[in-house]
Design a protein that fits this description.
The chain is an all-alpha fold and 134 residues long. It contains 7 helices and no strands. The radius of gyration is 14 Å and the shape is globular.
């Protein structure tokens, strides 16, 4: 997936303009890099579109431990948006990340996050429109 497609998908999913989609994407990925181990952040970055890779190339040495509420609050602060928009943005970005990277890589990312992060990703659909269980 290329960068423009990624941003367009986030904008559409979050129902925001492209500039806000860029802010939400950057903020979400920066906070995600803080939450993942450095090796996993680098592995994920390698599969993202080029301009987004740099956001995750220098993660902290240790993953920070925080839940979804803190994640959303950090994204809201970085993107300078209200928490409700940040929550929608995180959902849009995480769903787009799932589509942009391999299934195995996305599973690796999700394995480092608390279970409530699964609710931050739109369900993928099987043929026929039914939600697939993860």
């Amino acid at each position: 997936m290329n960068y423009n497609t990624f941003i367009d998908m986030v904008a559409q999913r979050a129902d925001v303009d492209p500039e806000t989609a860029v802010d939400l994407s950057q903020s979400t990925l920066e906070v995600l890099a803080d939450r993942l181990t450095s090796g996993e952040a680098i592995d994920l970055a390698a599969q993202l579109p080029q301009p987004l890779q740099a956001l995750m190339q220098n993660p902290p040495d240790r993953a920070e431990r925080f839940g979804v509420s803190e994640f959303v609050d950090r994204v809201a602060g970085r993107a300078n948006v209200d928490p409700a928009l940040a929550r929608n943005g995180v959902r849009a970005v995480m769903t787009t990340v799932r589509e942009a990277v391999t299934g195995g890589e996305f599973d690796e990312v999700m394995s480092q996050l608390p279970r409530d992060f699964r609710d931050m990703v739109e369900p993928s659909l099987m043929p026929g429109g039914r939600a697939r269980k993860r």
